[in-house]
Specification:
Largest sheet of chain A: none
Largest interface: A-B, 36 and 34 residues
Oligomer: homotrimer
Low-confidence stretches of chain A: none
Shape of chain A: elongated
Distance between the termini of chain A: 23 Å
Radius of gyration of chain A: 20 Å
Helix content of chain A: over 70%
Chain lengths: ~160, ~160, ~160
């Protein structure tokens, strides 16, 4: 059986985890849009204070950073620092043929850690809690990457 | 036939779309370099105002943000928020075996939306136009990701 | 033989290069954490100056940018602009069936250029040296991407 076939349960596990993480990252873009529309600000480009149908009453204050928008941007940035690497590491990890239960624990564990990280960051929990949740995901990422590297080296 | 073989026209479509998007993103790095050299500024690190062959007359003003450079950096940032996720989502979408015409509409449509987004952002069109073009690409990305997730869940 | 099998030496070469680059990027996150703990600052969110076990003596100055932390963040940002695209471009390049020696020169050459770029940036070498090392990696990335695009177009 082809390893990159949805009939392979380890690959299907990866695809579910990967698509959930992609939707999570895209969701951050939309959440930024929603918050910018709500506060009518947090814009970044000079042309964004031109009068348009979506911005009928422009004001130069719309270009100032808005904490409600900046919070989502920081969460999004944290995704950009983590998710693209998880997406590729997870795909390559499938090639090492791990047992299904282990793949599920690691990949779904990563997904859970990232959704909890979002919940903690979005609701402004302490830095300690956010860092703990990030660490769980990061250690899973390091584990699957090292496991894959070792397999590729032939050990 | 292997699904990840260039003989598979859906995979070839993905590879063409993916490589064009990678070249687009790398192009933003080079455009940043070109603009920094043109304005001799927009640098970010303290050591960048040391006297070197490429910077014979350094000045502390070279570390100030330069809008001509910052505009390209914002476009680049928008790519980083979108393209890595498209690259993985598109690859996984190939596994679902979509009809060729649909894959072409979605993947080439995404590529077109991103090049038009670049043109609109680079020439400082209204936020409304830029947002509309970004939305087209984002909806395509959400569609192929959801379609792949549903296939992986076995529906 | 399946092209995405570790028995394929070109794919194994890619997996080694890719996992090293993923570990490098994740390492930048950890280096940021280490430096933030060392200087007890360089934080970004308002809640980060709440009193917690890991931050027993909070101070509003902890939210100011700290150059020692910012340097690692700039290096990290440079990774985000480059590595996700290399990771996908390298995977697709495997499909074109390049000779092993060429794949090794390009993929390991890229890895070497990025580790040297890190060393130059981390120790604040001149912008010229950093730019030169970045250029080597960027040209390799452009080469493998164009080669793959040409193969996908059927030439």
């Amino acid at each position: 059986m082809d390893q990159f076939d949805l009939q392979n349960p380890v690959f299907a596990t990866y695809v579910i985890a990967a698509t959930l993480m992609i939707l999570k990252a895209v969701g951050m873009s939309w959440l930024t849009v929603i918050r910018m529309m709500k506060v009518k600000g947090g814009f970044r480009s000079p042309e964004d204070i031109r009068k348009t149908p979506l911005n009928p009453a422009p004001d130069s204050k719309q270009l100032e950073p808005n904490e409600s928008v900046e919070r989502v941007r920081r969460i999004h940035m944290n995704d950009l620092e983590n998710l693209p690497f998880f997406l590729v590491a997870g795909l390559l990890y499938v090639v090492t043929g791990p047992p299904l239960w282990l793949a599920q624990v690691l990949l779904y564990g990563y997904v859970a850690s990232r959704f909890l990280h979002f919940a903690a960051y979005f609701t402004a929990q302490t830095h300690d809690m956010r860092a703990t949740l990030w660490t769980v995901g990061s250690l899973i990422l390091i584990f699957i990457t090292c496991r894959t590297l070792i397999a590729a080296l032939g050990f």
